[in-house]
């Protein structure tokens, strides 16, 4: 039986016990054992107040925004508020730079699809890195196949770090856009995004940053980063699933062709042609997941209240605690050991099957982790492993949970399961 004792003291000014009361899922037991959720990089648990807002909106306030009746006016107001909160959260210049999508994958497809339909031609290049999630590879492959452009890939070294010299060399005049992750979902390491953005800008090349694994773990500011596009999913940071964000600089959202056609993305429609709406509406065709977006506004209030500067520091402490403990376990090989990381620990175990370890952790201790290619098959080939076991943390995890996790890994290895 898991004996999860909670850190009740102050941790970087955060009362973790109090924060955990906001997450009912973390108090659930299965077969008498408490859940130890270490899979936040796949999707995060939800604060109760976010789900209360969703429930309340569906049951007491539900109406489609942008109509004239009073219920709709209230929904429009709440949707507008959510967009403004998101713009402030990201340090965008205006809420017109915030496009809501159905997830990070769709946001990336909006950029890649837009480039395919007007901003890429034969002979052009799109530059990505060897670390990318399939969601930041395949949309660009499709865009390149359709437009005749070529996809090029910046290499990484054995520590999972980008080779900045090769990156700079690859930034030729043929490159029309660079797209890379802010932090790696598979290894956790932070990319030198500011340097990478400024090197691309020196050559006049726009940049799209995939922030799926960064936005949940650190304050991100669009003015500081200065990228043209930034994408992420709400479900990895506490919002209901089905909500994504595409931040885009005003001039780039104006330049980028729309992703889908349909209602609301056109101001006027004739049989000859549509007159497109201004951004962000130009990218929001059809009925959006507006209830989930409104609940995302409540999530932003929550994140501002607990303060992402503090959650970032606390998560960093958890990461170094877990790294120290796990590196002492015989046969464990942690991958991606570069200095600056997100709270992700990926490893393989010499002589053991990580899928069996994943099963053991779940069956015996109710620990949720993920093992496999981590949706980064090209990266696994480079690292020379079929897959990795990934434990990913959030501010709602505790050192006690990490103790149980690392001891369970050691037990599995000792007993040669
Ligand atoms: N990029 C990265 C780095 C990710 O980790 C993920 C999700 N694992 C995605 C993109 C895609 O996000 P979603 O499935 O929420 O669209």
CATH architecture of the largest domain: 3-Layer(aba) Sandwich
Helical amount: 25-40%
Q: Shape from CA axes? A: globular
How many DSSP helices? 14
The strand line-up of the biggest sheet is 6-12-11-10-9-7-8
- Count of strand segments: 19
CATH class descriptor name of the largest domain: Alpha Beta
Please name the fourth-level CATH homologous superfamily of the largest domain: Type I PLP-dependent aspartate aminotransferase-like (Major domain)
Low-confidence stretches: 1-6
Could you say which structural class the secondary elements and strand pairing correspond to? alpha/beta
**Head-to-tail CA distance between termini:** 19 Å
Q: How much of the sequence is in beta strands?
A: 15-25%
Q: What are the bound molecules? A: 4'-deoxy-4'-aminopyridoxal-5'-phosphate
| Count of spatially separate domains | 2
Radius of gyration: 22 Å
Overall pLDDT score: 95
User: Could you say what the CATH topology of the largest domain is called?
Assistant: Aspartate Aminotransferase, domain 2
């Amino acid at each position: 039986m898991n004996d999860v004792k909670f850190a009740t003291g102050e941790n970087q000014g955060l009362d973790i016990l109090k924060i955990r009361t906001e997450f009912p899922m973390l108090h659930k037991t299965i077969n008498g054992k408490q859940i130890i959720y270490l899979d936040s990089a796949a999707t995060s648990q939800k604060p109760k107040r976010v789900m209360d807002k969703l429930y309340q909106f569906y049951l007491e306030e539900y109406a489609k925004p942008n109509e004239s009746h009073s219920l709709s006016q209230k929904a429009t107001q709440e949707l507008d508020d959510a967009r403004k909160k998101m713009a402030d959260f990201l340090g965008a210049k205006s809420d017109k730079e915030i496009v809501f999508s159905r997830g990070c994958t769709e946001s990336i497809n909006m950029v890649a699809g837009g480039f395919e339909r007007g901003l890429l031609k034969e002979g052009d290049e799109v530059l990505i890195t060897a670390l990318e999630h399939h969601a930041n590879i395949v949309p660009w492959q499709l865009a390149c196949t359709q437009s005749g452009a070529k996809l090029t890939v910046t290499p990484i070294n054995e520590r999972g770090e980008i080779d900045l010299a090769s990156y700079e060399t690859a930034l030729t005049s043929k490159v029309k856009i660079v797209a890379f992750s802010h932090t790696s979902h598979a290894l956790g390491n932070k990319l030198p995004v500011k340097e990478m953005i400024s090197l691309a800008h020196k050559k006049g090349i726009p940049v799209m940053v995939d922030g799926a694994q960064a936005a949940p773990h650190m304050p991100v500011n669009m003015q500081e980063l200065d990228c043209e596009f930034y994408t992420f999913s709400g479900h990895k940071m506490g919002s209901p699933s089905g909500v994504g964000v595409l931040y885009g600089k005003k001039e780039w959202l104006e330049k980028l062709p729309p992703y889908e056609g349909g209602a609301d993305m056109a101001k006027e429609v004739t049989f000859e042609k549509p007159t497109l709406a201004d951004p962000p509406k130009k990218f929001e065709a059809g009925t959006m997941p507006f209830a989930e977006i409104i609940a995302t506004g409540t999530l932003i209030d929550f994140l501002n209240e607990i303060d992402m500067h503090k959650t970032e520091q606390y998560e960093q402490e958890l990461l170094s605690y877990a790294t120290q403990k796990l590196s002492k376990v015989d046969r464990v090989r942690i991958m991606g050991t570069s200095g600056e990381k997100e709270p992700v620990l990926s490893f393989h175990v010499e002589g053991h099957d990580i899928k069996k370890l994943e099963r053991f952790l779940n069956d015996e201790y109710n620990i949720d982790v993920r093992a496999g290619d981590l949706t980064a098959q090209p990266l696994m080939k480079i690292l020379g492993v079929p897959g990795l076991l990934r434990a990913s943390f959030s501010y709602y995890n505790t050192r006690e949970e990490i103790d149980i996790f690392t001891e369970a890994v050691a037990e599995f290895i000792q007993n040669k399961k």
